[in-house]
Design goal:
Helix content is 69%, strand content 2%. The protein is built from 14 helices and 4 strands. The strands form 2 sheets. Strands 1-2 form a two-stranded antiparallel ribbon. Strand 3 and strand 4 (116-118) form a beta hairpin. The longest helix is centred in the last third of the chain and has 35 residues, at 357-391.
């Protein structure tokens, strides 16, 4: 069968799951944005809905373009982009943005369009693609600690340490994802344990220096400590304000929910359109809606594993897992925070939460994953066409003429 005229390539089930997540997102984003409109006094619900629509349209445009790009190209792109992303992280960290006494150097402002860009999300994609490329090379030196320090671990620790002061959860997730990739790539376990210990030691050292010289090292340590203490202290209702409102919203939703747009807690819950949007979803669509959303993410996870399994190259397998797993993990971390399973982390719900560049980075990751899947299908179709020609006498005669 000739599929050269197809518009979409890659895993069709994954395409459908991503489309359903994005289409569904318009309902909770439109509803929860009233918090920003009537409580904070910024914008209008229709304005936020239009912004969300434009962000997703552009994001899916990026996804479409990348899924038609041979995934082998991302090897060279990651090598070239890594030093650029390190410079971008240094610039982001040096801005000196302080909000309520805490480090807020997560974003840079994109000129002309006026959107804020969170550089750590792009840095995660570039670093994981770079690590996947390194671990796919048949180079015995990479599996020796001394030989791997410069090409592998130096870039990893530079990127993670630049993200750490302003975004602990992203830095931890990125570092553990790197450990998983290098483990899957066959890196010796004894060296991985050493790298894990080195990472913990660097975090402790950073905390000690930041506490000793808070004016010299901008940080969010007090915020991290407060979140952990509030999580462990259920009697502290003031510190658990967000979690308490989120749990109230979830309890109010019941089995079928109050109905689309009928959330009450969205007017009292800060970050209701981003960090705590899952609580609003359950309040409006009930346990049924919340469970359906979880199932969609599980389908995405399943297709990621299937694509990785079907890939004929080590690079393809590692690239898919490296870019796909963090997105699904982030989704479940976001939902776990709303259910008070985890402390507040500031992680949004991928393709659902209102936002800008975070959604674009998610679309870029899935575009690359679909590129790997598309490469599998193209190779399979070419092989089938070649086999059909070899078995068909008319095709053989046509080639000869």
């Amino acid at each position: 069968m000739n599929n050269k005229n197809n518009i979409l390539f890659g895993d069709r089930v994954l395409w459908v799951a991503l489309a359903l997540l994005s289409i569904f997102s318009f309902l909770p984003v439109f509803s929860a944005s009233s918090n920003l409109t009537y409580v904070v006094g910024q914008g209008t619900p229709w304005g936020y809905l239009l912004k969300h629509f434009v962000v997703l349209i552009f994001g899916f445009g990026l996804m479409y373009a990348l899924h038609k790009t041979p995934y082998q190209y991302f090897k060279g792109i990651s090598i070239l982009a890594l030093p650029l992303i390190i410079l971008l992280l240094i610039y982001t960290a040096s801005q000196g943005n302080i909000i309520a006494g805490a480090n807020a150097n997560r974003w840079i402002r994109i000129p002309i369009i006026g959107l804020s860009f969170q550089t750590s999300t792009l840095a995660s994609i570039v670093l994981l693609a770079y690590v996947a490329h390194l671990m796919s090379k048949e180079n015995p030196k990479l599996y020796r600690l001394k030989s791997s320090l410069l090409p592998l671990w130096l870039p990893v620790f530079i990127v993670v340490l630049l993200i750490l002061p302003a975004n602990l959860s992203t830095a931890i997730l990125l570092f553990f994802m790197v450990l998983i990739l290098v483990f899957l790539g066959g890196y010796p376990l004894k060296y991985l344990v050493g790298m894990l210990g080195t990472g913990l030691l660097m975090v402790i050292l950073f905390v000690a220096i930041a506490k000793a010289y808070p004016d010299w090292v901008p940080n969010r340590i007090d915020t991290w400590i407060n979140r952990i203490e509030n999580f462990n202290n259920e009697e502290n209702s003031g510190g658990n304000y967000q979690i308490e409102r989120a749990k109230t919203a979830i309890a109010t939703g019941g089995l079928l929910g109050l109905g689309a747009g009928k959330s009450v807690m969205k007017n009292f819950l800060p970050q209701s359109s981003s960090d705590f949007i899952y609580a609003i979803i359950v309040e409006e669509f009930g346990l049924v809606g919340g469970t359906a959303l979880i199932l969609l993410y599980l389908i995405v996870l399943f297709r990621i594993v299937v694509i990785a399994h079907k890939s004929d190259t080590i690079y393809g397998k590692l690239l898919v897992l490296g870019l796909g797993l963090p997105i699904v993990i982030q989704a479940f971390v976001n939902m776990a925070v709303a259910l008070q399973v985890f402390p507040v982390t500031g992680q949004t719900l991928p393709l659902i939460s209102s936002g800008g560049t975070a959604a674009w980075m998610t679309c870029i990751s899935f575009g690359i994953i679909l590129s790997v899947s598309a490469g599998q299908k193209i190779e399979k179709n070419d092989s089938e066409e070649s086999q059909d020609k070899n078995e068909n006498p008319l095709a053989i005669l046509s080639e000869a003429l």
